[in-house]
Write a structure and sequence with these properties.
heterodimer, A: alpha+beta, Heat Shock Protein 90, Actin, Chain A, domain 4, six-stranded mixed beta sheet, three-stranded antiparallel beta sheet, B: 176 residues, globular, PdaC/RsiV-like_sf (chain A)
């Protein structure tokens, strides 16, 4: 068996390329993501063009361009959301695409300015974080990193404007975080979850409902998994008092969880519509939720 | 290393199953790469095959009924993907003469004075699978048979013939 041992040694000596590890992790993540349609993640290609240039630019969108990017507001509504700035980086292994939304037309200019400044600041901070992370990776050799951020107008009615902002980080595996702002356009106020309710009884009501709903969905579809299963590593125990939420055009409350918060990564960001009738007793009024 | 508990009933939720498969893929990535590389002899193609196999595996994860078959199940995907790749790209692959010889019909009395380093490349893809799985990856005959979708006796006979071709003396027990 001497020849065999030599052959085996030759086999064992096949050099493992350093990119294998990332490729395997990326492939797993991408295979999982292609199962889910809703992931805002782009395809991070391993073998992209060798010499891509780095450029960071900001595009001040024209109104026409902005309109093509957002839901065109309801006729008569004067509040608009558009992309004010896009930060882009295109490098072989580092890619970023960060869109900053801006709101225009709110009567309460203080609120509008505060929100717009917050959006710009957050995206700048995110881009700085991205650049720092790249510097760290470069120091250690090389790496892959992608960051995508942007927004989506969830609801735009006479009364309510809900904007969702997402932030997806891709490094081997990807994770997505969602944040929402819901504005009462008539009264010019930013709504918080606790402000919709009389007291904090809503936390229990919503938690109970979501737990039941998780179980129901898991029984119905074997591809669905939540950490509501008893004995799961991190069991979902309760929503936060200021859990992410938005309100739909037909006055329904939607509770949102970041990727990995209550479900395995392949489920992505998950949302639950809460039936208005179970909230009735806890609500301050029926202005927003009916 | 990834361990499979014997006799453990496969009652697990889908996400735990997914986690186990993921863990297996990550922990054994080097072995998977070497296997793919032995067929295509080129880094880019080997990486493509590993990536393709992971996609195929995770897409058909529901077909993996018991976690103890994880290894043979994934190896089958990997071997088939590699051999498919060779078939599709055969005409475009750059080969040296000794490698090419492996694909041509062999004459019985041909002098077999080949450099040991290239010995494996004189084998056909199917013969290669046998040697790699049984001797390099150290799988049992039954497991090799399951991966190649053959019965154990056929595998034994073909292994014996392949070893002879490689001029490797076999001791009793090597084929068991």
């Amino acid at each position: 068996m001497k020849r065999m041992n030599k052959l085996k040694k030759e086999y064992d000596d096949i050099e493992i390329p350093p990119e294998l590890d990332n490729l395997v992790k990326d492939s797993i993540q991408r295979a999982k993501n292609t199962k889910k349609k809703h992931s805002p993640m782009r395809n991070w290609s391993i073998g992209v063009a060798a010499a891509a240039a780095l450029f960071v630019g900001s595009i001040n969108a024209s109104p026409t361009f902005a309109n093509s990017l957002v839901n065109i507001p309801v006729i008569g509504s004067i509040v608009q959301v558009f992309t004010i700035e896009t930060l882009i980086m295109e490098k072989e292994t580092y890619q970023a695409n960060m869109k900053t939304p801006a709101i225009d037309g709110l009567e309460n200019e203080g609120l509008q300015t505060a929100l717009n400044e917050k959006y710009i600041e957050e995206n700048k901070a995110l881009f700085t974080k991205f650049e720092e992370e790249i510097a760290r990776l470069e120091e250690a050799g090389s790496g892959h990193l992608g960051m995508d951020s942007g927004y989506e107008v969830k609801t735009d009615t006479e009364q309510i404007l809900s904007i969702a902002r997402y932030e997806t980080t891709t490094a081997g595996s990807s994770s997505t975080e969602m944040q929402y702002d819901t504005i009462d356009k008539q009264h010019n106020i930013l709504l918080t979850l606790p402000s919709l309710f009389k007291d904090d009884s809503y936390i229990g009501i919503i938690t109970t409902y979501i737990k039941q709903e998780m179980k129901r969905q898991m029984e119905e579809d074997e591809n669905t998994a939540y950490l509501a299963v008893e004995g799961a590593d991190v069991e979902f125990s309760s929503i936060q008092a200021n859990q992410d939420f938005y309100i739909t055009a037909d006055h329904t409350l939607v509770i949102s969880f970041d990727q990995y918060e209550v479900a395995p990564g392949y489920m992505g960001v998950v949302t639950f519509e809460i039936p208005s009738d179970i909230l009735q007793d806890a609500l301050v009024g029926d202005t927003y939720i009916q | 290393m990834f361990k499979i508990e014997e006799g453990e009933p496969f009652v697990m939720t889908k996400n735990i199953k997914m986690e186990q498969v993921e863990q297996f893929l990550i922990e054994n990535q080097n072995a998977h790469y070497r296997l793919a590389y032995s067929y295509v002899k080129n880094k880019e193609n080997a990486l493509d095959i590993v990536q393709d196999s992971i996609f195929k595996a995770l897409k058909s994860i529901h077909r993996l009924e018991e976690i103890k078959y994880l290894k043979t199940w994934f190896y089958r995907i990997l071997v088939n993907t590699s051999i498919d790749f060779i078939r599709k790209h055969q005409r475009m692959m750059v080969m040296d003469d000794e490698v090419l010889d492996g694909y041509l019909p062999q004459t019985e009395d041909e002098p077999t004075d080949i450099d040991l380093l290239d010995a494996l490349d004189t084998l056909s893809p199917d013969e290669k699978s046998l040697i790699i799985l049984r001797f390099f990856e150290d799988l049992k005959i039954d497991e090799v048979a399951a991966i190649l979708d053959e019965n154990s006796n056929t595998v034994k006979t073909r292994l014996y013939r392949t070893l002879k071709k490689l001029r490797i003396e076999i001791e009793k027990g090597d084929l068991e």
